[in-house]
Each structure stands twice: as C-alpha cells, then as structure tokens.
Batch of 2 targets.
Target 1
Amino acid sequence: MHYGFCCTFPFAIFCELDAIKWTVCDIKFEDVRLRISPPFRSESYLRRGSPDFDYWSSPILKERSAKTPEQYSRPFSVYPTLTQDVHGKTKATVVVRDDARFESLPLNSIQFDIFTTDENEAHALFEKVKSRGLRNIKRGSHQYWILQNPSYFESDLKSTFCADENYTIHEPPWSSTFIVTPSKLSKPISHELWQKSWIDASTSQPIDWLDYLLEAEHYSASKEKEKSLMQLALSLELLKSDLWEALNQAGKCSRREMRKAQDSTQEIYHYFADNLYSACGDSIERFDRDSFASIKQIWMLRGLIAHGRAERVSSMVGQRLDDIDFETLIEGVLGAAYFVEHVRRSL
C-alpha cells in the first residue's frame, strides 16, 4: 500500500519537447521509496482571453440602444518560447488549438507516489520533496515563476470593439493578451535537469544569492519594484559574504577583516571594488564597470526604501522607481556573481 498525490500548479513548467517521452523518476527520500512522474498537463492549453460579454449590461451601450453583432470569442493562450529574437526579446507562441506546435512544452502537473503506510509521513514527505525538487528545477532552468503564482503571464479578460458615432458595432469584439518577457537565462527543462533535481532533493541546501535573485525577477515581473529591489540587495549581501569568506580561506584577509566585510551594510560596493583590491588586487570596477554601476545604484535605492524615503528616489536618480530599468539591475547582480566566481578561481 502507498499514497499518491497528483499536484497541479498555478504556474507552467516549460520543458523540452521530448518531455512526453520521459520515464518515471524512482528515488529514495529519507529511506522511503518515491516515484515521481514526468510532468504533464491536466487541462487544455487554451484560455478564453475575453469574457462572455453581455452588451446590454453596459450602461452606455444600453442607453444608446447600440446595434450589436453576435458575440464571438475564440479561446486562445500566449506562451513564451524561451528563445530570443534578433533584438534579444523572448518570442511568443499564440495557441488557438490544443494540438499547437510548441518550441517548449508548458506543463503544469506531477504525480508523486510515496511508498509508506503512514499517511502523515506520506503528506510530510510529499511537501518536502515537492518544494526541494521544484526549487532545484527553478534554479537550474532560471524559470523564476516556478513556486509562484505568476499572474503576469495572463492579462485581464478584455473585450475590445470598434463603434461609429451612433454606437453601431459593426464586427464582433476581439480579445488580446500580453506576457512578460522572461529572463534571457530562462531555458526549457531537460530530462537530465529533471532527473537530477529530484535525486538531489534528498539533500537540503541553504538559501543563496540565486534564490534571492529569482525572487527579485518574480517581483519585478509582478510590478512590485520595492520588493524586487530588496531581494536584489539581499542577493548582493550573500555574494559579498561568499567572496570575503573565500578570501579568508585563501589567506588574503584575516578573520576579523572577513567578519567586518560580512557584517557591514554601509556602501557594500566597496567590498567588491577598492577594499577588495587592497586584499587581492582585483576589483569589479575594473572587471565589469556596468555591473559596478548597478551595484551602487541598487545599494543607494535600497537605503532609501529601507529607511522609508521612497519619495526621494526621483530626486536622487532622476526617475521614479517604476521607471527604472530593473533588467539592467538584475544583470548587474548576475555580473557580480560572475565576478565573485572569477575571483575565487584566481585565488
């Protein structure tokens, strides 16, 4: 006897096209056997983009006694392909039939079979393996919407119509939608990543800079810019901490200097630049000036937000927070991560 869990998520898991041929993943998790199905889709790919619009529910149309055509709205969905066009933007697939040809498969469900006779243990193991495995998949694919409720991949239900001066509507209303362009690093999940993510789920991993960066990308896509900024700052703090721990292990700084660098919250970009240059002769200001500029801006904005002075953002940087290019700030944190790895290898 065992317990099975079929789980459908509010987010899509974009997989390579051969996902329909993947085999079951059979693992040991805390000495209990688990079988994890390949990802699948448990509902139609299509989504109705506009409501079943009743013309006469509109006070304006009712007042004008508008002449209206028959309602017609075709179900459709729009999915990112996770491939880039010549301008670096993610291409999209418009789906109007369930047998559409995809460049990657947007799947949303997994079945977990947990071979224990203890129902409480089965529920606990299910929650633990699900969250760890999906976190590994999220990190490996850079699909930052995994484990989130990404409303930014679907717009409001909306009917658009064109009317003349007499409010005569000459054609059925149409619907439209939009999607957020995912990160340039987002990629479809391969069978190798899928299997490895569940196997590695048996080991708990501490949160690191990449977890915070993925959270920042989610909040940026959700238009929650203050939350995104704070996650970017946390990502930088962890990178700084990792960098100075590596310096200490290589004998480039004392333990006291390492602790000072890790604990300091004042203008932390110095610990990627001049303070670092004093310790090991390297500096992100020389290695990647664009990332250095982004780090400085993130930290200045973080100070304003953390101390309740968000209204000063415009006067300090000449832009409202909502108008700042967060893609550049996110790329700056990625540049800092590459730089930290560069320093580690050179020690």
Target 2
Amino acid sequence: MGWEKFNAFMTGNDEPWSLRFKDLFSGSFKKRPKETLETPETFSPIPRPWRWTRIFLFLLIMTIVYYLIVMNGGIYLAFPWLALIAASVIPITILVLLYECAYVENVPLIHVMVVFFVGTAVALLALISIKIIVLPGNLETILAAPIFEELAKIVAIYVVFAFIKIRRVSTALLIGWTIGAGFQIVETLGYSTFNGLFEAFSEEGSGFIDDSTMVFRSVFAFGSHALYGTMEAAGLMFSRPIKEGEKGNIRRIWLWGTMAVILHMSWNGSSVLCGDDLAAFTWIALGMELITIAIFIYLLDAGIRDQKRWWSEIQESAEVPESPVDVPAEADSHDSAPVSGSQES
C-alpha cells in the first residue's frame, strides 16, 4: 500500500511496480527477434529492446579505434572527432533504448533526429535569453548554472510538447532524454576539446593531448544533462490529468524539476569543492551515478505502469480492438494510435 501511495504522489499513477528486468532485457543479447504485430493476446506493456546493445558496442569500438589513432598515432587534430564519439556513447545508447521502449506511440525516427538537433538549439538559445544573473566566483558554477540550464531545457521540452502530440509517459522520457543528450554532448565536446587541445598547442601546455576531461565526463555520462531532461519531461507528463475530467497536478513538474536542479548542483558543487582531488570526486561521481541510475529505472517503470494501465482500460472497454493499432483515440485523455511492438530505425 505504501509503494502505491508513493507512486501516486510522484507520478499520479498508483499501479504497483511492473518492471521486470528479465523481460525488459530478454532480447538485448540475442539475435535480432522476429518483427511481430501486437494483438490483444500478445501485447505486453514491458518493452523488449534489442538495438541498444548493438549501438553501444559500435560506439564503444569506434571510440577505442579513434583513441588509438589520435593518442598513439599522434593525429591530434582529430581529437575533437574522438571527443564527439566518446561523449556520445552513453547518451546515444540510452536514447536508442528509450526509442525502443516508446513503441506504443512509435515516434518516427526523423522526429527524434529533429528533436535532437532543434531541441538542443532551442535549449541553448533559451539559456542565452534567460541567464540574466551572474554570480561571483564559484557561486555561478554551483547555483546559477544549474538553475538556468535546467530552465532552458524545460523551455525546449515544453516547445517540443507543443508541436508533437505526446500521450504516453515512455514517449515523454524519450523526448526529455533526447534534448538533454544533445545539450550534454555539446558541453562534453566543448570542455574536452578546449582542455585537450590547450595542453597540446598552447605555450603553457605540455605538448601532449590531455584526455582526462573527455574520459571522466564520458565514463560518468549517465547522471548528467540527459537524465535531468528526462526527469523534467516526466514531470511535465506527470502533471497532466491521467483521465478525462480529472485535474492535473502542477506540483509534479516542480517536484521533478527541483530534483534535477539539486542533482545538477550536487555535481557542480562536488567538482568545485574537490578541486584537484580527483580520487574524492571520482567516488562522489560514482555514488551520484548509482543514484541517477536508480531514478532512471524508476522512470522506466513509470512508463511501463502507464502503458499497463492504458491497456487494461482498453481491454475493459465495451469493444476490444483487433490489435493496438485499432485503439480508438478517445479511449482516455492520454491515448494515441500505437503501432506494432517494435520499430524499424
């Protein structure tokens, strides 16, 4: 009972825990499964993604190959390309995972690409527009930057929500992660390139590429801007009414948005306070990574619970459709026309 109350408070949906890792990852390490059309007999609210592991291995191998080319081969001018690929490994892998999990609404891949590039641009433009306060010293990094950067992402997410009709939580998670991933890759690429090339080409530098910023930010990339954007998109979705006639709850966008800001402040604050003590910051980063992974798993479950509740209401209706494709749009206030259980990318 307590868990259901917690779910209702955080997400508005009091369904019990529904995520089963065995089912979720059942196809991740196997050969490509057959494409099948979902029917009332075979439909499952738990997705079975499989492409994400292939994407992860591909990006990881490309990172290793380019690392050897740049660092061992001395092709220093290719370092920005290496930094771009390394910065993309975790954000793009999880983006693909969420794309596969959002199979009910089946957002076209071209829309995801547009959101990635245009949404990132909107977030950066919003950051320029709303960053009206500059605090002295480290206060800028610890306090001002997290608040303004998260507000900028919320603006971008809200704009996307206004143009793309989103009904399911899983789709909102995809949109939030996509915008946050673009923001995150831009930031990691910028820091990594500046710090790395400064050491190699400046008079004060060592003459060698400094890859420490790239490696650290790429390894601890999970609990960063992409996840913050996911939390904010989830908050916007959770603030909507679940059923027609119900009232929304605006406190949930404040709740999830505040959590994202606190996590961002904690990361920046730890970086400033630890200074040159890389060992201490690494342990803190590892702890924060575990916390953010737990939050991500909870949001995945929220998406599954949303799909479970939606499909249960469809089955209880007077006329059960032949397949999820035929679900009427008016079934509830969050419904849309889903398609088959997996997408072609």
